[in-house]
Amino acid sequence: MKKYILGLAITLVAGVSALAQCDSTISLKTSRQERLNDKDEVVKAQDDVATIEITKEKIVITKDDGNNIMDATITKKSCDWKSFLKDGKATYEIRITPPEGEVKEAKAWIEATAGKKTFYILMNDRKIKAIID
């Protein structure tokens, strides 16, 4: 019985911790974006400073000059961090609302290995990779 209660307590703590990490506000700075093909090969690269702000409900990407690149609402999220923003992954299903047109469904995720972070957006057949400074 003690093992059962201990296991339940550990599971509860881990679940609360993962939820807290998923609901944390994250601000990432990027200086390079790459467009990838379906084989994850770079087809276009651009040096451009931008800020990626992830809150409980939104992902907003803004250029360093203040121009908004993307504004998206998070519809679903999942976090699997062994060490928050250092080792693990957070995934988001998002709804992008561009100022000029139709709403687009997409996926976004942050991957971190040994403290090196990368942010991705997958929208229809476009995959964008942002290298985090």
Span between termini: 48 Å
Count of runs of 4 or more consecutive helical residues: 1
Over all CA atoms, what is the radius of gyration?
A: 17 Å
What structural class do you assign from the helix and strand content?
A: alpha+beta
Please give the share of residues in helix: 10-25%
Give a quick account of the main beta sheet: strands, pairing sense, barrel closure.
Answer: 8 strands, antiparallel, barrel
Q: What are the secondary-structure elements, in order, as H or E?
A: HEEEEEEEE
What number is the mean pLDDT? Answer: 84
**Per DSSP, what share of the residues sits in E-state strands of 2 or more residues?**
over 45%
The 3D shape can be described as: globular
Q: How many strands appear in the DSSP assignment?
A: 8
Unreliable parts: 1-19
For the largest sheet, list the strands in their spatial order: 1-2-3-4-5-6-7-8
Describe this structure in words.
The chain is of the alpha+beta class and 133 residues long. The chain has 1 helix and 8 strands. It has one helix spanning 2-22, and strands at residues 26-36, 42-54, 58-63, 68-83, 87-96, 104-113, 116-123, 126-132. The protein starts with a helix and ends with a strand. The model is unreliable at 1-19 (pLDDT under 50).
Features:
1 helix, alpha+beta, 16% helix, disordered N terminus, 133 residues
